């Protein structure tokens, strides 16, 4: 399991936009989901998906030929927990 120190976590939290946070919460609620499901239910979040994937907060796993499912990584869950902790303070 990958963990971040406090300064790295703060840097990452500052770089997240509202769309990123919405998508992270959506993955925690409905994951795993395919890109098609994401487009059907939540238009306009594809760029956010790619950003979260590059930051290793979301991972893709091959489900079928040409179909991938996306889910949160442990790091993505840590970021969500840090956001909730920051929100309650």
| Straight-line N-to-C gap | 26 Å
Sheet-strand content, in percent, reads 15-25%
The ordered H/E elements are: HHEHHEEH
- The CATH homologous superfamily is named Winged helix-like DNA-binding domain superfamily/Winged helix DNA-binding domain
Helical element count?
Answer: 5
What would the CATH topology be?
Arc Repressor Mutant, subunit A
| The CATH C-level class name | Mainly Alpha
- Major sheet, described briefly? 3 strands, antiparallel
Structural class: alpha+beta
What is the overall pLDDT average?
85
- The whole-angstrom Rg is 13 Å
Strands, total number: 3
Q: Tell me the strand order in the biggest sheet.
A: 1-3-2
Binned, the helix content reads 55-70%
Keywords:
89 residues, 61% helix, 3 strands
Mind explaining what this structure looks like?
The structure is a single chain. The chain has 89 residues and is α+β, with helices and mostly antiparallel strands. The protein has one domain: Arc Repressor Mutant, subunit A. Helix content is 61%, strand content 17%. It is built from 5 helices and 3 strands; from the N terminus they run H-H-E-H-H-E-E-H. The protein has a 3-stranded antiparallel sheet with strand order 1-3-2. Strand 2 (58-64) and strand 3 (67-72) form a beta hairpin. Helix 2 packs across helix 4 (46-54).
């Amino acid at each position: 399991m990958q963990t971040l120190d406090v300064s790295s976590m703060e840097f990452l939290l500052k770089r997240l936009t509202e769309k990123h946070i919405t998508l992270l919460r959506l993955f925690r609620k409905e994951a795993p989901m395919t890109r098609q499901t994401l487009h059907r239910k939540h238009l306009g979040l594809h760029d956010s998906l790619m950003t979260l994937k590059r930051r290793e907060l979301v991972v893709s796993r091959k489900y079928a030929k040409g179909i991938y499912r996306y889910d949160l990584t442990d790091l993505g869950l840590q970021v969500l927990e840090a956001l909730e902790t920051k929100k309650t303070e």
